[in-house]
Every structure is written in C-alpha cells, then in structure tokens.
Amino acid sequence: MRVHQLPHALGLGIAAVAMLAAFPVEAKTISVAPGGPDANEALQEALILAEPGDIVELGAGVWKLTDGLSLDVDKVTLRGAGTKDGTGSILDFSDQQGAGEGLLVTSDDVYLTNFAVLNTKGDGIKSKGADRIVYHRLRVEWTAGPKETNGAYGVYPVESSDVLIDSVYVRGASDAGIYVGQSRNIVVRDSIATENVAGIEIENSFDADVHDNVATKNTGGILVFDLPSLPQQGGHNVRVFDNVVNDNSTPNFAPKGNIVASVPTGTGVLVMANSRVEIFDNVFENNGTANVMIVGYRYPYQDDKYQPLPRDIAAWNNEHGKAGFAPAFPGGAEIAAAMGGAIPPVLWDGAGSAIVNDDVGVLSLNLPDVSTPQSEAKPSPADLKGEAPTPLPGITLPAAMEAKVR
Question: Is position 47 within any domain?
Fold first, then answer.
C-alpha cells in the first residue's frame, strides 16, 4: 500500500504521516500488453505513471505504434518479455506520424532491456542527460536495410555520465548505429553494428572503452571523433580493443551535409581530432580503404577553442587482414595502382601525432598541417615504431549498473 493512500483513511496525524513517508515505497511491476487501438496510449501512460524503482514490463508480441514514447522518471526499468535479441517484444514504428525518436529517455538510473525498436522515422532510442543508463539486449533496426531516409542513430546516449551499452544489435542507421556523444565514463561491449554508415561512434566524449564488439558491413566500422562548436569538446582517453572490424563495404548513404557523409567506404577504425586513443588487440579484415585511419579535422569551423589535430594516437598488437584494395578517397585508386594494387592497412593524413607498432605498412598522405588556434607549434609526425604510451586505465562503472546485466 502506498503512503499517499493512508492519511485520511486511517485518520493519521501529520507526525505519523511524516514517519511513514520515511520508509521506502514498495516498487511495482506495470505490465502492458500489445494490440488494440490504445496500445500506444497505454504504454505511454505506464511510462508516465511509473515511480522510482518500478518495472514497466512489455508483453510479448508486436506493438504497432504511431507516436514516439518518452520516459522522464528516475530509476525505472523498461523490460521486454522476449529473448536476448529483443524478438519477444517488438515496438514497430513503421506507421510513426512524427519524425522524432522511438523512445526518448531524460531521467537517471534507467535500465532498458530485452526489446526491439523497428523503423523509427527519427532516432531509435535516444537518452539525453540520463546518467547511469544501461542499454542491454536491445535490437534497433531499419528492416529495409541501408537507406538515406532511415533514422540517424540507433541507440543514442548524449550528455551523460556512466553509460553502458551491452549486447545491442543495430542495423540500418543513416548516421551511426551505436553513438555516444558529449558523455563520459562509457562502456560499449558485446554488441553488433551492421549496415550502418558508422557502426559505432564515440564523439566529443571522455573516458570510453569499446571492446568485444563486431562492426561489419558498415561504411566505417568504429569512429572516434571530436567536432567543433559543441558544448563538450576535447575528446580523449578512448580505448578500442578486442573488436572484430571486418568487411565494412556498404556505400555511404548518409544525407548530404552530415559529417559522416565524408567517411570513405571501407574504413575500419577512423580517429579524427581526438587525443589519447588506443587501438589494440582488434581483428581487421577486408576493409577496402584502410583498417585504421588517423586524420585531422579538415573542414571550416568558427571555434577558437577547438583543437583539430589527432594527438597521441596509438595502435599496437592488432591483427591485420586484407585492406586497402579499394581506397575510396580522392586519388586513392591511383595511389593503390602505383603501389601494386593496394595501399597499406594504416592510413594517416599527415597531421598530429601517432604511434603505430603493428607490423604493417603505414601510408602518410603528407597533407598540409591542420591549423591549431591554441598553438603555432608544428605537430610531431607519426612515429611508426615508437614506444607505446603507458596504457590507459580501464573504465569502471558503478556496481549497480554492472549488476543489472549479470
């Protein structure tokens, strides 16, 4: 029984009510079933009426939804009824009327698990300012495959601290399948990103581990970017390790004007204008442009605080399979022909500083230095056989977040 139901019924005084209010309220499970003309309203009502600690449980089946959903209550679990790939509870937005997200979360300590989101007009699942959020065993997909009209992002946490993305599958995003932006303390693991423009993207973020994922058949597998004119910039301390990054061969289908529209088809890992990025123990295979690209930001910008150079990028102990056989950047085909049919697996534009200790070739394009407003010093060139830096520490998330996915 909830405290707010007691005072008048029992004739309790103010002091007694205050004493009762000090005790925790028992959490409840709110079960919602698909089907019927009011399914959209019923599910949204459940998300509005949920209280901290509650579980909103999706019944098995296909939900035909016409409007996006939102959650702004802390400490709520949204749980599907199905298998780990989300096939049991499917939120189908094929008939969505607006152009917004399928689900927008703006509250803290939220746990999303075991459901699918299909064919949203905008992003699949977005969270903004949602600290300690967990995306677990979710599927976000545009079922017709790569199309410019698909939503931009599959799962999209932004402006958050402590983000865990675990066992997520995303296909068909016209920007990034798994995207984390302007956040800190991030783990992306055990997930699959396929047939997106960017499979996984860490942008303008601090302290991230991206590991044990599969990025395949995207335009670019894993991107680590830092962009100007955003509230948080100076991305740094990102580790990309123990991933399989292969066959990223999907032609770029991003809408014109998007920064990812410039990602060359056939890119494995692309680092742009970040610092302290470590790329190690990954398996690369069949990426036509390059397995690893390291570049500066080479576009106009009006932001005196922005640093466009990649700095202290390190790659070591990666396994490099076939790469560089179809470089999709201007002049790439001619360079490959001159080098016997393929360019080396690691491609550097010539700006910033990097150490590559993998036993493979590195091609520098020797492009002019990217200007850096904060310093007129010429950046150090890439050192192909320098000492690897002191390894970054791994990311530690709050124990309560890890406990949810065990």
Answer: no
User: Within a domain: residue 59?
Assistant: no
Q: Are strands 236-241 and 275-280 parallel, antiparallel or unpaired?
A: parallel
Q: What is the residue-wise DSSP string for 39-95?
A: HHHHHHHHHHH--TT-EEEEPSEEEE-SS-EEE--TT-EEE-SS-TTS-SEEEE-TT
Of the chain, the end-to-end C-alpha distance in Å amounts to 31
Residue recorded with tokens 């962009």: 227
What is the C-alpha to C-alpha distance for residues 294 and 43, in angstroms, rounded to an integer? Answer: 45
Report which of 235, 239, 234, 244 is spatially closest to residue 191, judged by C-alpha positions: 244
126 to 40, 80, 100, 220: CA distances (angstroms): 18, 17, 10, 21
Amino acid at site 46? A
Domain that residue 275 falls in: 123-404
Average pLDDT over residues 273-289: 97
| DSSP-assigned letter for residue 16 | H
| Cα–Cα distance, 311 to 246 (Å, whole number) | 26
Question: Length of the chain, please?
Answer: 406
Given the structure tokens 């495959």, which residue do they identify?
A: 145
pLDDT confidence tier of residue 306, bands split at 50, 70 and 90: very high
For residue 358, give the CATH number of its domain: 2.160.20
| Residue 36 covered by a domain | no
pLDDT band at 366 (very low <50, low <70, confident <90, very high): confident
Residue 21 lies in a domain: no
- Total tally of structural domains belonging to the chain: 1
